[in-house]
Amino acid sequence: MRARRLRTGLKGWGGVGAMAVGCALAVLFALLLPLVRSHGESGGPDAGHGLAHGSATRAAEECADPEKQTLAPSGADGPTIDEIRGREGEKRKLIVGVDQNSYRWGYRDPNSGGDAELEGFDIDLAHRIAEDILGDADAVQFKAIPTNQREPAIQDGRVDMVVRTMTINCARLEKVAFSAPYFRTGQQLLAPKASPITGYDGSLAGRSICTAAGSTALSTLEQDREEGRLAADADLGTTVPNQLDCLVRLQLGEVDAVVTDGALAASQAAQDPTVQLKGDPFTTEYYGVAMKKDADDLVRRVNRILEQWRADRTDGWQSSYDTWLSPTMGDDPARSEPPAPEYLRRS
User: Fold this and answer.
1) Which residues contact 64 (CB under 8 A, 6 or more apart)?
2) Phi-psi region for residue 85, left (φ > 0), alpha (ψ -120 to 50) or beta?
3) Cβ contacts of residue 319 below 8 Å, gap of 6+?
4) pLDDT, tens digit, for every residue of 7-58?
5) How far apart are CA 17 and CA 270, in angstroms?
6) What is the DSSP string of 215-229?
7) Which of 63, 70, 274, 317 is the most exposed place for a label (fewest CB within 10 A)?
8) Distance, CA of 147 to CA of 164 (rounded, Å)
9) Secondary structure (DSSP) of 63-115
10) pTM for this structure?
11) Distance between CA 185 and CA 225 in Å, rounded?
């Protein structure tokens, strides 16, 4: 694929600076919140924005099928796409938040020689979106962001979108908008081959489990422990900024198991022959492209691109799966391809 031959630049995540700015903004927001509410209720300039945000929040609270809470595809331009296209010179690029450490999803192959090329399934999709919007598959500025910073990166405007094995769920829909699903997966357990752990069952009693902060794995485990589906003495105290850090903790013997998306767990098992997937997936989840809540035109455009990508049997979804994921997930992609998308019924 042409996208995989392209060299890409990568800017790291300024975590400390972002946290400092975030704290300052939080204080400022607390001071101004009464004024903002009053202004919005009086029908001022921000009233429409407040209404739209309130409607979106209510929709998220009421959602039962988060993967269906997205807008119908469209090729029409809009303010978000116009802003991206309006960038001048070297800045005329799509800014995409990605991972650089997830094997076969978004990673740098140390055996590729020279400057390791950023590649993988998610990277192919990012190039495809850039080609459609800007006419150049290489017009992408990648920013590496940790798992727990995906939503803030979008909300703060540091990226146009996140393409980073990000699960669509109702809680996240309160903060960001999602495309239709582009991949189906589920939470699964990773543990040493010699471990007595057999899966997501009673063998986890008294065991320490690593998850990424802000991940669906952590929220699922916390809820399951509270509701009795996970042993009450299972230790969930080990969380890390990046999911791959859990594999390191497992290798060092600091935790007994890792819970993450089965698609990522399969890639990690391929990296380390001493660990393996234990038991079957115990949830069903879908990855989506995340964008700002008010970026309706971009959401619609990405949904159109996804439909075309899945229909393209030469250089599309199937080709990327065969290249990147079949070595770790098997030759049959049927379990991973999401169902036909469903969209919100509104203009």
Assistant:
1) none
2) alpha
3) 1, 312, 313
4) 344 444 333 343 333 434 333 333 333 333 333 333 333 333 333 344 444 4
5) 35
6) -HHHHHHHHHHHHTS
7) 274
8) 8
9) -S-GGG-SPPP-----HHHHHHHT--GGG-SEEEEE-SEETTTEEE-TTS-SS
10) 0.81
11) 22
